[in-house]
Design a protein that fits this description.
CATH architecture: Beta Barrel
Structural class: mainly beta
Helix content: under 10%
CATH topology: Maltoporin, Chain A
CATH superfamily: TonB-dependent receptor, beta-barrel domain
Number of helices: 3
Number of domains: 1
Largest sheet: 22 strands, antiparallel, barrel
Radius of gyration: 26 Å
Shape: globular
Distance between the termini: 43 Å
CATH class: Mainly Beta
Number of strands: 41
Length: 733
């Protein structure tokens, strides 16, 4: 079943992306002229784009998700975690939700086997269609996103108003795509586990042509999938090609195309049995009726980017991308139950004996499309006693979602049971309308990193967005349509206290857009509320030296809330309105140290999250939001065995604190701790390098519920996977 946030969408006349690009071209020429006047002709070197043609990993990671460009993480006053390809391989990560084990600010939000991923950052659930980027451009995450052709995954933590027009306040996830390598690359990876899961992945790269002007990177992967839960056999494939052309000095053209497909049955979450948590059984799958079918997710994504140097310190670029997704969603899923003994219907849980209402859900031919075009110009100039590193541009995005009537039926299916899983009849009656959506947005942005001295710099960003959204069900009902304009600022100050230590503070905003549904029961149906502006401040420090790095960040995010007041059962009885806020305050610590044969890394987050100032249900004020742990700890250690060259041992610990299962805080999910372990052994024969890996996740085979999302007024419980042994071989050829 598709559990997704559905607040929006629209289609109104707005400036075309091509027209916007033409306007920005004029701005490009004007800024180039300004830059030219700031330099004497004899001092102007030949324009180059060295920074965009070098694809090897820098000694200090440069995060592209911030928008500020060339400063490394250690000198950037923004909280970003960069998860590299090596990190993904060493932890045997397969999906985006697997990366959260590497950062304490991230946790699960509704991560079912066979479904797409939801991620929480700083206690806020990221919206799949607004909080995800691919090389900086918007994408939809309502699909299976592969990792084999990713150079790294960037997690920007906190409000993202200057990076995104609208988004949930937790942060952004940015996928950085692998690009051609300077040297020939031939890599084969094989991986398997004891449950019959098997992966084969080939990664090829290099350069050719006159003066090595053409480059390529090809990633092909196939996987046979099987989790611990019953009936989850599936398969997936990936084919991705990235190429570039150094047209002439100072000019670079990049193009890439990715096709992915995943077919696998899903595993719905469990729920409370009466007022109790059931035993966390990772082998249970309610979606095993004879008529259950695997869900199918397919994606075709491509992009084209051209960058041109126009002066020694100035360049402009145009970047276009298109993503087309198709999904067939099938699920036999449980929701609520009628307790005959107490003569009451429980909408949020199962009955005490494990009974539940079972629904036959089928949604065929769901199609999502995202197109975007961005034009930007970057450069440096001297003005007002500072060096200004500028980045200005415009981004135009169009998103559409279409489907057909769905089956979502319980009447002929009947009552299931968690412990006996009886066989029930199917009911594939497609009577439930699908909601089609459209959205256009235009976002003008400007970033300025102002360097006043070797120690002091200020950072400023501004984004002005215009969105136009509409939605309507396939039967013509519940139509909504609206437009909004808003501006989101961000400001930071950074002080290089020591050559290796940065102190910083920042404040910024993020925006979400909410409209009252077009239903007769709403007194303000089809009307947009004022934009929900989240506000954040954070302060901290970063230190990086030859031995390693560490840092600390104190943050506070306040997010406005909206809710429904009234009976909401008959026409004109309900009003969608603002209703207080949620405030998340916390402390994040990160470290990575090299101590002789040991490499240590870890992160921790202490989070105080509260619902405040609500009037619809004042009893929730002061409560922690559901499924948000109060403390998260991630720690890892690797030991290089000197007696056996090439051999290293590693271990990783993950701990998440207590979280609320019910909104009123009357029931909580206990804290849990998981220990993983493994080893890697690297050998070399001539130029051929091979790495063998053995990894054991959940080493102690603990049974616990990993998360407890509360959605559609229902409790879901996801048990952690049991002990799993992975073996892999990566070799060059």
């Amino acid at each position: 079943m598709a559990f997704r946030i559905q607040p929006f969408t629209a289609h109104h006349p707005s400036p075309k992306p091509v027209a916007l690009a033409a306007r920005l071209a004029l701005l490009t020429l004007g800024l180039a002229a300004t830059a030219a006047q700031a330099q004497t002709p004899s001092s102007n070197p030949t324009p180059t784009l060295d920074t965009v043609t070098v694809r090897s990993a820098p000694s200090q990671e440069v995060p592209s998700v911030t928008g500020f460009g060339d400063e490394p993480l250690s000198r950037t006053p923004i909280s970003v975690q960069s998860i590299t390809e090596a990190d993904l391989r060493s932890t045997h990560a397969r999906r985006v939700s697997d990366v959260i084990q590497l950062d304490a600010s991230a946790s699960d939000a509704y991560n079912a086997v066979g479904y797409w991923d939801y991620i929480t950052l700083r206690g806020f659930v990221l919206e799949p269609n607004q909080n995800h980027r691919r090389d900086g451009l918007p994408i939809s995450a309502e699909t299976a996103l592969p990792l084999e052709n990713r150079e790294r995954i960037e997690l920007l933590k906190g409000t993202s108003g200057i990076q995104a027009g609208t988004s949930a306040p937790g942060g952004l996830v940015n996928h950085v795509i692998k690009r051609p390598t300077a040297q020939p690359l031939r890599s084969l990876r094989l991986e398997a586990n004891q449950r019959g899961n098997f992966l084969a992945h080939v990664d090829l790269g290099g350069r050719f042509g006159v003066d090595q002007s053409l480059g390529y990177r090809l990633n092909v992967a196939a996987e046979h999938m099987r989790s611990a839960a019953a009936g989850t056999q599936g398969e997936r494939q990936l084919a991705a090609l990235a190429m570039d052309w150094r047209v002439r000095p100072g000019s670079l053209l990049e193009v890439e195309l990715e096709h992915s497909r995943r077919k696998q049955p899903s595993v719905p979450g469990l729920s409370l049995t009466g007022n109790q948590l059931p035993a966390p059984n990772p082998f249970t799958n309610i979606n095993t009726q004879p008529w259950s079918q695997p869900g199918l997710m397919q994606g075709l994504t491509g992009s084209l980017r051209y960058e041109q140097a126009i002066q020694a310190d100035w360049s402009w670029s145009v970047h276009a991308a298109s993503q087309r997704l198709k999904a067939d969603d099938f699920l036999a899923y449980p929701y609520g139950c009628y307790d005959a003994g107490a003569d009451v219907y429980h909408a949020d849980r199962y009955c005490p004996n494990g009974d539940f209402d079972l629904y036959d859900y089928r949604s065929l031919n769901e199609r999502r499309s995202t197109q975007s075009l961005q034009w930007q110009v970057k450069g440096s100039l001297q003005a007002a006693g500072a060096t200004h590193h500028l980045n200005v541009g415009v981004l135009g995005t169009r998103y559409t979602e279409n489907g057909q009537a769905q089956a979502d039926n319980n009447a002929a299916v009947g009552t299931g049971n968690l412990y006996t899983l009886p066989v029930l009849p199917a009911d594939a009656s497609f009577f439930d309308p699908y909601t089609n959506r459209k959205e256009r947005s235009t976002e003008w942005f400007a970033y300025d990193r102002m360097v006043w001295s070797q120690r002091l710099s200020t950072w400023a960003g501004l984004r002005h967005s215009r969105i136009a959204r509409d939605s309507v069900r396939t039967d013509g009902s519940r139509a909504t349509s609206y437009t909004q304009n808003f501006t989101t600022p961000w400001l930071a100050v950074a002080w290089q206290w020591q050559p290796d230590t940065l102190l910083f503070a920042s404040a910024g905003q993020g925006v979400e857009s909410v409209v009252a549904p077009g239903r007769s029961r709403y007194t303000n149906a089809n009307q947009a509320l004022d934009p929900l502006k989240s506000r954040q401040w954070e302060m901290g420090f970063k230190q990086q030296s030859g031995q390693g790095e560490w840092g600390a960040t104190l943050f506070s995010i306040t997010r406005p809330q909206a809710g429904d007041v009234g009976l909401c059962t008959v026409a004109g009885s309900c009003t969608r309105q603002m209703d207080g806020d949620a405030r998340h305050r916390g402390l994040e610590l990160t470290t990575k140290q090299k101590l002789g044969a040991w490499t240590l890394n870890g992160s921790a987050m202490w989070l105080s999250a509260q619902r405040r100032h609500g009037s619809i249900d004042p009893t929730l004020n002061g409560q922690r939001p559901t499924n948000v742990p109060n403390v998260v700890l991630r720690a890892g250690a690797t030991y290089a065995v000197a007696q056996v060259p090439g051999l290293s041992l590693n271990t990783r610990l993950s701990h998440e604190g207590r979280r609320n299962v019910l909104p009123d805080g009357s029931l909580g999910l206990p804290s849990w701790t998981r220990l993983d372990a493994g080893l890697a052994y690297q050998t070399q024969s001539g130029k051929q390098v091979s790495t063998w890996r053995l990894g054991i996740s959940n080493l102690l085979n603990r049974r616990y519920f990993q998360e407890s999302p509360y959605q559609y007024s229902h409790v879901y419980l996801f048990p952690a996977a049991p002990r799993t042994v992975n073996v892999s071989l990566e070799t060059s050829f």
